[in-house]
Each structure stands twice: as structure tokens, then as C-alpha cells.
Design a protein that fits this description.
mainly alpha; Growth Hormone, Chain: A; 2 domains; disordered N terminus; disordered C terminus
Length: about 425
């Protein structure tokens, strides 16, 4: 009997093997992992290229971050906002193209997204442009990410049911972490051997492979087949108005808004603490290279947490443990107020990373709370909001560290995560946690 011979019931525990036995998910999973690797390779290589051209550490850092931060504005039409306005929370409701994830056939959207990434990367590799123009190309591509990502996440929610959906999200998280690390490491090696321009061409080739795989192997689904509303693209005022209305309705919904905040805030606080690890290690005069060990403890803890929580716990148990696991995310960081040494700091960061597995317990309640014809836009908003807050976190807590020290700022970030857990205890009526 194959692992998918019987459907997974709502409260049954699925397995990673069952999830990977679904060929359509396996296609999305594998192409996403390759695309993340290509993205990390492109970001690293582009940062090296900018620094070698300008000698500016600031522009090099901007080149590294430009692929992430504009996702806040992923559905805005003017990339200039990404440079000029900064982080304005009200723009979370301005995803002007987000509804396309629900309105258009997903194969065209996802394949088109990878093709666009390929074209932009190839442009950077072949055309010698001013740095400002190159940064603009990167920003424009990043603006579209929530649309394509939302369409892909929507399909996962349609194809994987019950606990299989939760483990599918877990696999995507694991693949993201692993592919990012591999892509960053690959970037250094490829640049050293081929040079930055040829390294960008390698990244473009990986994106092209993803686009072709989706175009050839993903079934062609019409809106009615993947949960969209046929004909919705006409007579409703267009994509911009529909996106604004959809984002407003999503954020107005009490349950959806709370579940989004629960998935945004703890990782943002952890990112704020993570951004201070190098400064903390330097201030405590740890040996050379120990900062890298400390930074590696968080993803290792996340990996162990996702595997253990995903494999060993039944769905209702995961959902009941959401609040304790969020508390576990924050409490170890509070311990940095005592400015511990390397060994204790490593253990605290491992525990913090483990607690981030709380997100598995929110996946099913979040999917159940979404309107059927707005899931793609909701997933795009969830991803872009999370990415943006994780970009804001280090800036905020870095500013705090200037006044109270790095240990105190890390502890403050942990305290904020604990307060988030306490806030979730006040939810009435209680969510299915």
C-alpha cells in the first residue's frame, strides 16, 4: 500500500513521506528549494559585484538587502517607494497586485515568476548598468514575489489536507533554511572560480530550470479548479481595486489579523536579537569565529524543533503548545541580560530556535480562517509582512543596544516575545490552540 492510499484525517498525524508522495507538492517543493538557492547565490554575488565596482560597504549592504526589504511593497507599482518611504506599517494594506494570486491560473503565475527572476539575473550578468539601475532591477523583481509565492502556497493548501498541510509547510521551512545556507556558501565558491558575472549567469540558469519544470510538469488549472472564482477578473474594478479590498477585508478580520500577528511578531523579535549576536560576541571578547557558532545555533535549533514537533506530536497537541513554544522562544533570550559566556549563550540560542517550531501549530488554524477566494493574497501578505518585520527588528533593537548594551537589547527582544505569548492567552473566544 502506498503512503497516499488513504486520506489523512483532520486530527491524524501525517508523515513527511506521505507529504512528499504527492507529486504536485514535490514539484513545488523541489523548484522552490532550487529557486531559493539561486536567489541566495544571486544576492551574494550581486553584493560582491557592487562592492568590487564601488568600494562602498553601504551600497554592498543595500545590494544584499534589496531583495528582501521591498517585499513589504510587493504589490505596489512604484519601486521608488521601496527606496524613499522606508518601513510604513500602513502599507501592509496596500498590496495592489496581491489578488492576482487568486485570479490567474497558478502555472502561468509561478512559471512567469521564475522566468522574471531569470531575466532580471541575466540582465545583471550581461549588461553593465549603473549601480542605481541594478538596484532598481532587484527591487522591481522583489516587488512581485508575494504574488508568485502566494499562488504557490495556495496550491499547497488545496492539495495537502489536514496534518499533511502542516508538514508540507514544515518541509518548506526546512528547505528554505537549508537552501539559503547552501546558496550563500555556493556563492562564495562560484564567484571565486567563475567571477561575479558568470556566477550571476549560473543563478539565471537555475531560475530558468525552475520555470521550465513548472511550465512542463505542473497541471494547467483554471480558477474554478484551484478555488478561485471564474470571471472574477472582470467587472470588479480591476486587480488594484480587488487587491486593496481583499487586503482590507483580511486585516479587518479579527481571527486572521491575530493569527498573522502571531506569525509575524516572535520571528521579528528573534531577528532583532540575532542581528546583535556579532556585536555581543565582540563586546564579550569571545574568540575569533565564535560569533559564527552562535549565529548557527538558531537555525540548528529551528531545524531540530521543526523535525521533532512535526514528527512526534499530534496536530491537537501542536496547537495547544503554540503559546508555551512562543514563550520558549523568548525566555532564553531574556537570559542574555546576565551576559553569559559562549557555552551558555549557545544553549540559550538553541532553545530559542527550537521554540520557533510554534508556527507549525498555527498553520492549520490560519488556513481554516482564510476565505476560499482570498488564500493566495493572504499567503502573500503573510510572507511579505513577516519578511519586512524581520528586516525592521534588527534596526529597532540595534538602536536600543546603543543605549542599554547588546545583552540588554537581546533580553528586551526576548521579553517582547514572552509578552506576545501572554497576549495570546487573552484571546477571547479562544482559538483552537
Amino acid at each position: 500500500m502506498t503512503p497516499t492510499a488513504e486520506p489523512v484525517q483532520v486530527n491524524d498525524r501525517a508523515t513527511y513521506r506521505e507529504v512528499l508522495a504527492e507529486p504536485r507538492f514535490r514539484l513545488l517543493f523541489s523548484t522552490r528549494a532550487v529557486a531559493i538557492t539561486a536567489g541566495s547565490l544571486r544576492i551574494t554575488t550581486f553584493s560582491v559585484l557592487v562592492f568590487s565596482t564601488t568600494g562602498s560597504a553601504l551600497l554592498s549592504a543595500l545590494a544584499f538587502g534589496i531583495g528582501f526589504l521591498p517585499q513589504l511593497f510587493g504589490s505596489l507599482l512604484l519601486s521608488a517607494l521601496a527606496f524613499g518611504i522606508g518601513f510604513l506599517p500602513q502599507l501592509f494594506g496596500s498590496l495592489l497586485l496581491g489578488s492576482l494570486a487568486d485570479r490567474l491560473p497558478p502555472r502561468a503565475l509561478i512559471a512567469g515568476g521564475y522566468a522574471l527572476e531569470c531575466a532580471a539575473t541575466l540582465l545583471l550578468a550581461l549588461v553593465r548598468m549603473p549601480i542605481a539601475a541594478s538596484l532598481g532591477v532587484m527591487a522591481l523583481v522583489a516587488l512581485t514575489t508575494p504574488v508568485f509565492g502566494g499562488a504557490s502556497s495556495r496550491l499547497v493548501g488545496q492539495w495537502l489536507k489536514g496534518d499533511a498541510y502542516v508538514l508540507g509547510r514544515s518541509l518548506n521551512n526546512l528547505a528554505s533554511s537549508g537552501a539559503q545556507l547552501f546558496g550563500l556558501a555556493l556563492g562564495g565558491a562560484v564567484v571565486a572560480v567563475l567571477g561575479p558575472h558568470r556566477a550571476l549567469a549560473v543563478s539565471a540558469a537555475l531560475y530558468l530550470g525552475c520555470a521550465l519544470a513548472i511550465r512542463i510538469r505542473l497541471p494547467l488549472l483554471e480558477p474554478g479548479e484551484f478555488g478561485g472564482t471564474p470571471g472574477r477578473a472582470r467587472g470588479d474594478g480591476g486587480a488594484v481595486r480587488a487587491s486593496l479590498r481583499g487586503a482590507r477585508l483580511l486585516l479587518r478580520g479579527h481571527t486572521v489579523r491575530r493569527l498573522m500577528l502571531a506569525q509575524w511578531l516572535p520571528p521579528a523579535f528573534v531577528a532583532g536579537a540575532e542581528g546583535l549576536i556579532v556585536a555581543y560576541a565582540g563586546g564579550r571578547h569571545f574568540g575569533p569565529g565564535w560569533y559564527a557558532v552562535l549565529m548557527g545555533c538558531l537555525p540548528v535549533g529551528m531545524l531540530v524543533g521543526d523535525l521533532l514537533v512535526g514528527r512526534l506530536l499530534r496536530p491537537p497537541t501542536r496547537e495547544r503548545l503554540v503559546v508555551p513554544l512562543i514563550a520558549l522562544t523568548g525566555l532564553p533570550l531574556v537570559g542574555f541580560a546576565t551576559e553569559p559566556g559562549v557555552g551558555v549563550s549557545s544553549c540559550l540560542l538553541l532553545l530559542c530556535g527550537f521554540g520557533l517550531a510554534y508556527g507549525l501549530g498555527l498553520q492549520r488554524p490560519f488556513l481554516d480562517a482564510l476565505p476560499q477566494d482570498g488564500q493566495g493574497q493572504a499567503f502573500g501578505l503573510l510572507g511579505s509582512g513577516s519578511m519586512t518585520l524581520q528586516g525592521i527588528g534588527p534596526a529597532c533593537f540595534g538602536s536600543v543596544a546603543a543605549g542599554i548594551g547588546t545583552g540588554g537589547a537581546i533580553a528586551l527582544a526576548g521579553g517582547a516575545a514572552v509578552l506576545t505569548a501572554a497576549w495570546m492567552l487573552t484571546w477571547h473566544p479562544p482559538t483552537p490552540l
